[in-house]
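Give me the fold.
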Amino acid sequence: MAQRRKWNKTLVIQEIKLLNFKLGRKPSKRDSSNLYSLTRQYFGSWNNALNRAGFKVNFLQVPSIPQKLNEDLAYLIGLIITDGHIVYEDTPGRYKVLIYSSYPEEKELIIALIQKLFKYSPGVSIRKNIGFSKKPNYEVRISSKNVAEFFINKIKIPSGAKSKIVRVPPYLFVMDKKIISSFVRGIIDGDGSIAKSHVKIASGSIKFLEDFKRLLNRININSGNITSEKNSGTFILYLSSKDNLSRLYHLLYDSHGYSYPRKKRSWEDLKNRCES
């Protein structure tokens, strides 16, 4: 590259394309420190220059972190506790918040919720389900250290394997009914089982179910005793009183917040049986 060359945007783009031809691949900023410096000078960043040169570029997104707990965030917290996973490793690119679902409409709901709360468009991957199910398993992904630290440090969701140690975030106990109900809806949508006469919440953490039972009491919903499934390491909390189930349905759905359609349909059927 000529030392005294008079550069402009057009010449920088030409140099990028020439480097692409020489390398036989999309160039990276490490391939030419001088060209990298020129792209920053004329385009603001390497990725901006690559984009202008016609290359597909994944621009770094900077999520907006919510400043206070609201109903939508409470619902998302419930989904992450039940159907999510936080990766936090001291390696670039290894900070992720993941949420899983096998239903396309739920995947789209999770994407919309993340976009609304964090001003961030999450990545989506399809993983093969293990076993007899042929449904795809969608992984919705927030690749951000700041978001991972937000959920770990402020929301108090453990990273890594959390099923046996997770707890209900303590600040939820002083929130109003709408926020608590949104969190409960997220927990039941993520990992609750709605049958003809009861709702079942399962967890590997007995402390979580004890917390959850106390949280239900805060919104005047009584639940049964916590039992354990033999030889499975799983604990179960049942809600079976018709009066409680009917009142809980209205607490969960009268606010018209986010919810999984299939779970809401099951709740409606259960509510109708309770009120008939």
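Strands lie at 84-88, 95-101, 123-127, 137-142, 192-194, 199-203, 226-228, 235-239.
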